[in-house]
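User: Structure tokens for this complex, please. No commentary.
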Amino acid sequence: MNRYTIYKIISFFLYLIAQALIFNKIVLFGTAYSFIYIGFLLTLPLEIAIIPGMLVGLALGLGVDAFSNTFGLHAAASVLLMYIRPKILSGLTPQGGYTLGAVPRPKILGLGWFTTYALPIIFVHHLVVFFIEFGGFDLFWSTLLKVLASTAYSFLVIVVIQYMFISNVRK
Amino acid sequence: MKSLFLFLYKFRAFITLILLESLCAFLIIQNSHYHRALYFNSSNTVIGSILSVSNNVTQYFRLEDINESLASENARLKNNFREFSELPDSIQYDSTRKFNYLRARIIDNSVDLRNNIITIDVGAKDGIKKDMAVIGGGGIIGKTRYISENFTLVTSLLHTSSMVSALVKDKVNICTVQWDGTDPYMVDLLYVPRHYSLVVGDTVLTSGYSGIFPENLTIGYISSIDLSDDEPFFNIKVKLANDFYRVAYVEVAESVSLPEIDSLQNLVQ
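Assistant:
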């Protein structure tokens, strides 16, 4: 285990605890949720293969589920997130390809790149979370409003965390 | 055979996705259809303890709210006490206790989801069993569902599968309260036939017919009444007496007579 792996394991638990104890309680206007834990999944290194990635998503999702009593809801959304992430990443390859050991973070690849990368993924994740939670498509528009508001809120918080707390540990 | 393995290898990511998603679907469905205690929830010792510690901290910022609600409940109880003490002596009260109450603290509460679950800091070691009433702030909070040694998960009234047997004070004897999953301050009052004359502001109380909730607890007050021509029942919205955002302490009520009622009903069936 190198330094970077240990750093990632610690930040896994920090994200989980921050989500469970802080951000689960800060719901804006009863509409906008921030699921900041997916910031951890979004900033996993590019090299991580798709299947281990999905397993990490499952583990983190189940952790969040355990704290919010949602039994598999976040796990389902996170596994899907980790499945579509490599596809979006390969669609967004910069000219000349990614540098070896690059981490998809706004500080490294630029805020503009990170926005086009993270926003669609966060949107899909939140879409899955809210529509499974509502158990169907009745109240479609109010659910969609929750999805959109939460996507913006989560994205904002994830970016702020990236700039404020994450040190420049490189692989 | 070889081509089958090649096929499986080519689509291994997609197959893993399907497998993992089925696992998640299984967990979600098992929770909503079978009342089985799963390990991955906040009644788990580790998770419950973490939430409890976190609640110890955040509670300090809400002390004013908590004080206020306790004071108003005190006042309400004192008013009730006066009513009782002013009644003539000749009426004999049934002195058998119907419910035992146990104090509990809410350590985790969700309000804005569609299916909200509350975690409280009492469990099997305090004698909590399934389907006990949880009340607080003068109104009802929910029903106990998963019980571990030290913690209990409560199905909040703000859960789409919660149904509470209710009555409208002095008017309707039997109806049902259920939440539609949108506004955490409002619930629906169902099955009130159209021949009743109700007005906005009428009090909705628990009926106590289910044997789980004590009777005559305030659920809320009618805030709007709607009657369409082709429906047999009113569409009634009830404003909840309890503010679920603020509630911090609750009582778990154990019905002394529920086992007897249950065994009688089993005889009949």
